[in-house]
Amino acid sequence: MDRFDVVALGELLVDFTEHGVSTRNNPVFEANPGGAPCNVLAMLQKLGAKTAFIGKVGNDSFGKQLREVVAAQGIDTRNLMTDDKVPTTLAFVQTAPDGERDFSFYRNPGADLMLTESDVDRSLLQHTRLFHFGSLSMTAQGAEAATKLAVETAKSAGALISFDPNLRPPLWESLDVAREKIAYGISQCHILKISDEEISFFTGSEDVDEGVSVIREQYHTMLVFATMGKKGSRVYYDGSRVECGPFLNERTIETTGAGDTFMACVLHGVLEHGLDHLDEKKLYAMLEFANAASSIITTRKGALKVMPEEREVWDFIRERKG
Questions:
Q1: Judging by DSSP bridges, how do beta strands 160-164 and 128-134 pair with one another?
Q2: Among 5, 44, 280, 301, which one is least packed by beta carbons within 10 Å?
Q3: Cα–Cα distances in Å, from 252 out to 230, 246, 258, 296, 297?
């Protein structure tokens, strides 16, 4: 059996992102492959990791497109299943002038929700260094069971677990349910990436430090990364807090995939250094690289197909630091 650095489970979908207007002044949308877990794997592949994806798409043109694109990134697709009855999930992403997004999902249901426990290839999870997931695979009962099976299998095999809430309120029957499922994810992970907005949602605190303190006291998460958009990012580890400013980019067109790019980069750092004896220098370097890569991806439409190369990120950092 192949040994993987990272296996991820979750949604794989088509993001229709705004791409100008037609000659009749109607909005034009471009079909970009997306889905947070696969975006993370795509960036990890660029950084030299060996990855595999567990998920489900429809037996339609979009599903076939996604399968081809994911495989082209080098991600192992042996556990990417096909549903013959339910179509591939679609999301329409409208972007504000500042790059922030508004999502409209066509997922009631979508094929990604049809993943079941019997679909999961446990051998992948028994042969990976790290397993990554988000909350959106827990918005339907069958997919939630598959997610929890994957977490339990990977943990039992000694893998590290990483979690990104990736909160999308329209996809939950209620925000109380979303909070409950996010709590499960945090309770299971060694590595948490969470945005300032998600911290506020989950803890009720507008103060990032205070919110993270609440999370760490309750769940004892070893490594917590807090992303703060244009304010940069912070990492919390073993009683220390390290902060890194953003790489603001005048060429930013949208923020789709920025958090996923960040997640991949910090997981790359964990794969390189482990979770023991991380000093402030290593933690800062992880944040700086992740912030830079995230800045680059905001200048591109979509994410999965256009992740930056490692050398490109280092060149960007050197250029910005003079």
A1: parallel
A2: 280
A3: 11, 13, 11, 8, 8
What is the pTM assigned to this prediction?
A: 0.95
Q: Residue 3, Cβ neighbours under 10 Å: how many? A: 8
Distance CA 200, CA 167 (A): 12
pLDDT digits (tens, 9 = 90+) for 256-298: 899 999 999 999 999 999 999 899 999 999 999 999 999 999 9
The span from the CA of 109 to the CA of 111, in Å, is 7
**Which residues neighbour 113 within 8 Å (Cβ) at sequence distance 6 or greater?**
86, 89, 107, 139, 140, 142, 143
Give the C-alpha separation, 15 to 97, whole Å. Answer: 18
Q: Closest Cα to residue 246, out of 232, 236, 227?
A: 232
Strand ranges across the sheet with 90-95: 27-34, 13-21, 90-95, 101-106
Main-chain dihedrals φ then ψ at residue 184, nearest 5 degrees? -60, -50
Q: What is the rounded CA–CA span in Å between residue 202 and residue 200? A: 6
Cα-Cα end-to-end distance for the chain: 46
Q: Which amino acid is at 134?
A: G
